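BUG: 3D viewer hangs when loading the predicted structure for this chain

Environment: internal workstation, default settings.
Expected: structure renders.
Actual: progress bar stalls at 90%.

Input used:
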Amino acid sequence: MNLNKEQYRAAVHINGPMLVLAGPGSGKTHLLVERIRMMIEDAHIRPESILVITFSRNAARQMQARFCKRVEEKVYPVTFGTFHAVFYYILQEYDPNTNRLRNS
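Structure tokens produced before the viewer hung:
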């Protein structure tokens, strides 16, 4: 995959968190997919320890599909989801009663 200079710098940044700010069509998803692949295959980070959070369900699905296509036939258990879905899952893990709706 071809990355420009700035994308490559972001993709190889492994130690610590990273924030990517860029406009529409600038290659953010492309960069993040490649970064996740590099974290797993080059830096040997366990895929099950990688969490990818997006704002929309559609964006999470698209990023997961693009990642699966990029790594072809390999299966890596990376977690993709929205803020709401991921945090709801975490709440359920710590409190099984979370799945009940409360009256406000």
